[in-house]
Amino acid sequence: MNLISLSDLSPTDIRNIWRLVGEPVEPLNGTVAWSFEGNGIRTRTTFIQAFRDLDLQFTELPNLLKTGERARDLAGYLDAFYDL
Predict the structure, then answer these.
(1) Per DSSP, what are the bridge partners of residue 59?
(2) Mind listing the pLDDT tens digit of every residue in the chain (84 residues)?
(3) Burial annotation 3-21 (CB, 10 A radius, 16+ → b, else e)
(4) What are phi and psi of 73, to 5 degrees?
(5) Buried b (16+ CB within 10 A) or exposed e, 38-74
(6) What is the H or E stretch that residue 57 is in?
(7) How many CA atoms are closer than 13 Å to the CA of 64, on its beta-carbon side?
């Protein structure tokens, strides 16, 4: 996992990130395929509500990454059906 710490960022980096917050963003559209691999109901519910708030259609694919198939193969197969 590639996590960063605030101490990894320079003051200029942080100002640039905040500058991006005020820029208009094109709305997302399309269908989302997603898989929540954890047990946290609050986190799962937050994702679902975010999809709804963004007016995105979504399909949950439970335990997607717990199959024997390679993630690359799954992504290639699902790419034809989902936008995000």
Answers:
(1) 33
(2) 566 788 889 999 989 888 888 777 788 888 999 988 888 899 999 999 999 998 999 999 888 878 888 888 888 889 999 988
(3) eeeeeeeeeeeeeeeeeee
(4) -65, -40
(5) eeeeeeeeeeeeebeeeebebeeeeebeeeeeeeeeb
(6) strand 57-60
(7) 14
Distance CA 41, CA 67 (A): 22
What is the rounded distance in angstroms from the CA atom of residue 24 to the CA atom of residue 68?
41
Residues paired with residue 58 on neighbouring β-strands, in sequence order: 32
Please report which residue ranges of the chain form alpha helices under DSSP H. Answer: 11-21, 41-53, 71-78
Q: Is 59 helix (H, G, I), strand (E, B) or coil?
A: strand
Token code pair at residue 33: 């395929």
Residue for token pair 């917050």 = 21
